[in-house]
Amino acid sequence: MKKLYMIAAIAATLMYGTLQVASAQSESPETGVKNVVVVHGAFADGSGWEAVSKILKKDGYTVSVVQEPETSLADDVKFTQRIIDSQPGPVVLVGHSYGGTVITEAGNDPKVSALVYIAAFAPDAGENTAQLEQSVPPAIKGIKRTDDGYFFIDPAVFAADFAADVPAAKAKFMADSQVLISANSFTSNVTSPAWKSKPSWYMVAAADRAINPDLERKMAKRMNARTIEVNSSHVAYISHAKETAKLIEQAAASVPANQ
């Protein structure tokens, strides 16, 4: 009889402990967003995210790459929102260069938990990409305009101005395959900056010629973003894929997994 009593007491203790753990888990919000959506910038396409995507997927993240057309800011935001809405849960939204302008607007989607800017524009309400770029002029000189209002980088200077720290063959292919961007994308104003209500992270590319690094620092400070710097050309997400993935993972781990 005494033995049966002891077994019952042990079982009750174990059950109580299990209930306590379950209660604590239900009271403490789970952290760690697992869905990452990445947005490319001007003169590039989504393939540049391949190395970052591989690292994130290996670490257990789901990665979706937006292939926005760069025909207008409204179109690019719409394409990004479509990918966000297809995710099964909360999202970390990442943008490079002009992609920062896109996520600044698209990041208002309720599914977006955090924003990560990689050498990216982060306009305030009433600002646009062109206005910001001209406020602290960059070193780039090779941007050309087509007769119908689209912009591209002269392939002769693409590597030096855009991708100086990637292999020469890769930079040449990027120049040959660059996506032209519309004037509308550059000049349309942001109406509601998501960084004012969502936590933000920023990577400054200290050797950037396409966006002045001082402007990057200024935007990051204005957002109160958690900021790191890398000694990189404009395409930091390609030349510094490990650091980029690490920053994204830090953002993902810092926000609630449930909304």
Automatic annotation (TrEMBL):
Leader sequence residues: 1-24
Domain (AB hydrolase-1): residue spans on this chain: 36-246
Top-level taxonomic group: Bacteria
GO molecular function, one term: hydrolase activity
A Pfam family the protein falls into: Abhydrolase_6
Claim: Hydrolase is one of the keywords in the record: yes
Keyword annotations of the record: Hydrolase, Signal
UniProt-recorded name of the protein: Hydrolase
